[in-house]
Amino acid sequence: MREVVQSLEESRIREVANEGLGREGVLKFWFGESDEVTPEIIREAAIASLQAGETFYAHNLGLPELRHAIAGYTHHLHPGQHTDAWFDRIAVTSGGVNGLMLAVQAVVDAGDEVVIVTPVWPNLVAQPRILGARVRTVPLVVDDRGAWCLDMPALLAAITPATRLLIVNAPNNPTGWTLSADEQATILAHCRGTGTWVLADEVYERLYYAGDTANGAAPSFLDVARPDDRLIVAHSFSKSFLMTGWRLGWLVLPPTMTPVMGKLIEFNTSCAPVFVQRGATVALQYTEDITPALVRHLQRCRDTLIPLLAALPGVTLANPPGGMYAFFRVEGQGDCLELAKRLVREAGLGLAPGSAFGAEATGWLRWCFASRDLGRLTEGVERLRRWLAVQPGTHGTGL
Amino acid sequence: MREVVQSLEESRIREVANEGLGREGVLKFWFGESDEVTPEIIREAAIASLQAGETFYAHNLGLPELRHAIAGYTHHLHPGQHTDAWFDRIAVTSGGVNGLMLAVQAVVDAGDEVVIVTPVWPNLVAQPRILGARVRTVPLVVDDRGAWCLDMPALLAAITPATRLLIVNAPNNPTGWTLSADEQATILAHCRGTGTWVLADEVYERLYYAGDTANGAAPSFLDVARPDDRLIVAHSFSKSFLMTGWRLGWLVLPPTMTPVMGKLIEFNTSCAPVFVQRGATVALQYTEDITPALVRHLQRCRDTLIPLLAALPGVTLANPPGGMYAFFRVEGQGDCLELAKRLVREAGLGLAPGSAFGAEATGWLRWCFASRDLGRLTEGVERLRRWLAVQPGTHGTGL
After folding, report:
1. Cross-chain Cβ contact A257/B1 below 8 Å
2. Angle, CA B177 vertex, CA B38 and CA B173 arms, to 5°
3. Across the strands, what pairs with A117?
């Protein structure tokens, strides 16, 4: 086997989750998915497709109907281009992660330098390594209140003409950090100068709570870029439509790259199942019913969890403007992998260790707040409070 | 974009298929799939899963129930290992092509040499190129009767200690060529000596008509190899279970590679949809009902098509022992891409050009004989006969 593949890190989140195997009653907030089932209307569309016998190969780039629906959705959020122009830039992929892998395959040769803003979910760092790239990370910096921010001078200094690709995920998993439109324009202008591709993972675009944008969504590179910029934006049906298990996403590409991406899809997965794509097409038809309600609910989740967590003694965290994670530090707890395992065993609380997302996040914990029942979140905080109270050396308040 | 990715060949099969866009009544035999819908019992299992709300992330390696079912199926065909031992060697993938791509990612570094037996379906050649490998092809040789055979001395001479990976697809798409167990043992012994990995695409294992094996299937590397051999075998639900559009397959791996493959799956697609895997689990439960009947039908298709084709003037082809393709040459027709396009336009007959599968197959045509209705095959031959009859310089027999 290849050394680089063997050395890819095992998922530390799964290592924690394994700690919960066979344990009753663990409250699980470790994975990045809601506990809510996909809306019935989406499932019914897939069922109807299966009943109609749509079990054959499909276009590499996705069903034209679905690409058109995605283009219309994109135009609605980003009116800078018409639906037909967006259509020519859309490739349907077998999940957001698959889209990101395809994007890396399209631009990264072995030996190329790739710059990645971290902390970030581990797949983004692993993918260029699989292609043989040299990965250089630029850490966000954390302030006293626990908010993670971009060190723009450090990022721009890291991106040189030798940098083939910048990978950035904002709204960010795990920190909730979000790029402003000005920052996106600055990064893009710099990358135009260095000839660097930008791969923007914007799957949390709709999960944005700041209310300071015209479309309600997080700022997007699509609004500051030209169609022919070296920009690839990755999206997913997972988060905004409660479709994690469907494995469907899409890429927005420079139009000249779309046919090339069709070839890469052929050689990676050939296509996504038609019945899966039928579900997604209906999801987009009903996006005004599904997504705003989902985002309002996630905001309630956030607004329930964050103040309760912040009130715990020794806990540092900021209110995330986007995403679906609380990211926090507990005073006196340095080894977050061990801490996360102990919380599973001793408190029945399942969180993800910060070190899974980058060395600079060691000591932090990620809590996915996408929970159908708000009571699960308050019960989780209560379990953490009781556990902290009996730890030596922390500011326990007693039971 | 990467030069190597831009230079990947567009599908010549799609180029021919595009010729048929908007044309009524074309008989389409160009793609490698049956025109038969997935059996209802399989579709019902997926529907039940969707109704039950199984819309969440799943294990990277596949549902344990499905892996166990695949292990049992493998044990039934290849009793050399028990079901539990096979289980530890199974990874569920998002289609056969996805499994092959994952296998290449696992073993091929940029610059590595990969040897591939051709003609072969184009994805096998493209995948190592995407990883930056140097690809060396070893052509099968064709005899006077149109049968393609392995030139074993040439293959063994091509595989040296510098060869990282051998890729071989048998039963072969497009030629139907099949490796004997002796040939597999010879190849494996040689590759042990050179330290070369073997990636065997055995997705047509069950589509075998020679009747000279104990299990009825084509010879498999799994029957001549040890568990710890550097061998990866790729399988798919597409052909043996009429599930092309479901995008589900599996790999059989050395047991130590299985956890590594789980990581690669995480970084490529994360997992296959649970509802898709439920369909496949039921497919394996009913394999004795589904697969032998399917193979008998395909044999009828083959035995209908081949004699009719062979009887046409100027046509050379051999009876394929495996697979689902007739592969033939028409005297006086050298440019098979142009020939295939003309057959679409002038005869309403959709075939794949041999040059899509390797330069040595230029001048040949591939006809997928997986057809629900045998009448489509005879009508297709009749169209070819009529078309040939009016071509100058061929042995036309008149209308």
Report:
1. yes
2. 40
3. A138
| Tens of pLDDT, residues A235-267 | 999 999 999 999 999 999 999 999 999 999 999
Candidate CATH numbers 3.40.50.300, 3.40.640.10, 2.60.120.10, 3.30.1300.10; the one for domain B40-287: 3.40.640.10
- Chain B residues whose beta carbon lies within 8 Å of the beta carbon of residue A277: none
pLDDT tens digits, residue range A22-31?
899 999 999 9
3-state secondary structure at position A350: strand
Q: How far is CA B303 from the centre of its chain?
A: 20
**pLDDT tens digits along B121-176:** 999 999 999 999 999 999 999 999 999 999 999 999 999 999 999 999 999 999 99
The second-level CATH assignment, the architecture, of B3-30+289-388 is Alpha-Beta Complex (3.90)
Instruction: Nearest chain B residue to A38 by CA: give it.
Output: B55
Candidates B57, B101, B243; nearest CB to A55 = B243
Q: Which of residues 115-144 of B touch A (CB under 8 A)?
A: 123, 126-127, 130-132
* Cα→Cα distances B328→A150, B145, B308, Å: 62, 10, 12
**Which among B66, B132, B33, B233 is positioned nearest to A55, based on CA atoms?**
B33
Inter-chain touch B94–A127, beta carbons under 8 Å? no
> CA separation (Å) from A33 to A29, B56, B330?
8, 8, 56
Domain ranges in chain A are 3-38+289-387, 53-286
Verify whether the Cβ–Cβ distance A11 to B266 is below 8 Å: yes
Distance (Å, whole) CA B303 – CA B369: 10
A47 near B CB under 8 A: yes
The CATH number of domain A3-38+289-387, selected from 3.40.190.10, 3.90.1150.10, 3.40.50.720, 3.30.70.1070: 3.90.1150.10
Instruction: Answer yes or no: is pLDDT of A399 > 70.
Output: no
**A98 alpha carbon, distance to own chain's centre:** 13
Q: Do A245 and B4 touch (CB under 8 A)?
A: no
> Which residues on A lie below 8 Å from B94 (Cβ)?
94, 98, 247, 269
Q: A379 CB contacts (<8 Å, ≥6 apart)?
A: A27
Sequence length of chain A is 399
What ipTM was estimated for this complex? 0.96
- Average pLDDT over every residue of A274-292: 97
Contacts of B264 in chain A (CB under 8 A): 5, 8, 130
pLDDT tens figures, A67-104: 999 999 999 999 999 999 999 999 999 999 999 999 99
Phi and psi, residue A64, nearest 5°: -55, -40
User: In this prediction, what percent of chain A has a pLDDT beyond 70?
Assistant: 98
Give the tens place of pLDDT for each residue, B9-59.
Answer: 988 998 898 888 889 999 999 999 999 999 999 999 999 999 999 999 999
Q: Does domain A53-286 correspond to CATH entry 3.30.160.70?
A: no
A266 contacts in B (CB within 8 Å)?
A: 11, 97, 123, 126
From the list B31, B54, B132, the residue facing A110 with the nearest CB is: B132
CB contact (8 A) between residue A260 and residue B6:
yes
| Cβ–Cβ contact A5 with B under 8 A | yes
Q: How far is B351 from chain A (nearest CA, A)?
A: 17
By the CB < 8 Å criterion, does A8 face chain B?
yes
Contacts of B276 in chain A (CB under 8 A): 273, 276
